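Quarterly update, task 2.4: fe (ii) ion-bound model.
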Amino acid sequence: MSAPVPTHAPARTSAPTAAELLDFALRTAADPEIIDSLPLDPEGRTWIRLDGPGGSEAWLIGWPPGTGTGWHDHAESRGAFATARGRLTEHSLTVRLPSEGWRTLELTPEVDRTRSLGAVTGRAFGEHHVHEVLNESDSEHAISVHAYYPPLPLIRRYSRSGAVLRLEHVERPADWQ
Ligand SMILES: [Fe+2]
């Protein structure tokens, strides 16, 4: 008896890389049928959960003008995001921060980076990536696609005052229901 022949793509045997997550985010951002399925609210962000590749956690997010995430990280998850409509600004840090054992850190000036991501552009990031994402437009809604692997176990939220980054609280999936 011969081995069964798969009728579709074989099950993947390895976790998705950050590059694969970015590829997914970019392909999804370029798919108008998916992007147009997101309801938009002028007053606040909206989101839909998507099936990401290889068991990753993926989201479609709508950003009214002037909205943003605040500074946060994604713990041990790597990820990627891509703008589908409008333009998003990402402020990020080039340094990898210690994950535990600190409450405030003084950042040196050279660690700050800013990216402006129009449609259809994106970026991948590794674990412990610290950033904030903003729609700085005063008139245009933005839509983006995000993917994380492993699925987010927690998010650490920070405040930023000049060079000082302060850990404010840790959110877990139960907080997002
Ligand atoms: Fe993020």
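Highlight for this quarter: Helices lie at 18-29, 32-35.
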